[in-house]
Specification:
Layout lengths: L1 E7 L6 E7 L6 H33 L10
Antiparallel strand pairs: 1-2
Length: 70
């Protein structure tokens, strides 16, 4: 399960986005493999979100500044 939570940001037309992922595997092998690559998958998902957000911002003519923290 993944969850995206949006909150009003500190400046007008800004927001905070909190992203969380929950996963569970019955197999210890699958769990270990997923743990090994979790941060890379997380970065890929956040980068995809950032690119989508920039596309929306471009369409609306807004500020393109995105600050991503891992």
């Amino acid at each position: 399960t993944n969850t995206w939570h949006f909150e009003e940001g500190p400046e007008p037309q800004s927001c905070w986005v909190t992203f969380s992922v929950h996963y569970d595997f019955k197999s210890a092998v699958h769990r270990k493999i997923s743990d090994t690559f979790f941060h890379e998958v997380q970065k890929t998902m956040i980068t995809a979100f950032d690119h989508g957000a920039i596309s929306c911002i471009d369409h609306e003519g807004g500020n393109k500044q995105l600050i991503t923290q891992f």
